[in-house]
């Protein structure tokens, strides 16, 4: 071997760990996200739609992926400082500085819904919540009318650490209602067939779910956009999501 070839090998060897690291996607997930989106144990993501999607995208783009727990109140800071590269259960309206991020094509639609105790009067709209206590997720923004009702103290917001705790409090009538994504609530109800809980007929808000990419994303944003759109347009995103819902014996609604 020539001396020059040895030099080239040494340079490549010294750069290789950095090249590998640059191709790792640091994928954020929220500790308050329940199934079918996130199956979490001891702060680690073990399954759910977000996990399956991350694994699929990593395979399609030939990169590695690591899943990093990111509380709602730290999502924007984490995207900006590179602690995470993206998070895929989000919407621009939930971000303070939405223009700072690249937003993927919409993945699917969701809605915020209420659960209430079956022995209480039906909550038909915001007026029926006046004077009541609503179980919420810490750091999460809801529809503007509901946020205004919290600010005006027309409705008491009670942040509870996780959905399981909210469900237990509601079952014992220590909350008047709880709010979450409909799929998450439906998943939990299917897993608790004896729970004395029912859906309110009121749909609080409908919205689209996107991925938000930070500026330190290690691959081209348009590559990631194209991979996600291909999965969506082929129906594979719906298949992934429905597969997680079937774990609790229910189908998409």
TrEMBL record:
Domain Solute-binding protein family 3/N-terminal: 24-248
Keyword terms: Signal
Family label: Belongs to the bacterial solute-binding protein 3 family.
Protein name in the entry: Transporter substrate-binding domain-containing protein
InterPro entries: Solute-binding_3/MltF_N (IPR001638)
Highest rank taxon of the organism: Bacteria
Signal listed as a keyword: yes
Xref: PANTHER family: AMINO ACID ABC TRANSPORTER SUBSTRATE-BINDING PAAT FAMILY PROTEIN (PTHR35936:SF6), MEMBRANE-BOUND LYTIC MUREIN TRANSGLYCOSYLASE F (PTHR35936)
Organism: Metapseudomonas resinovorans
Keyword Transit peptide: no
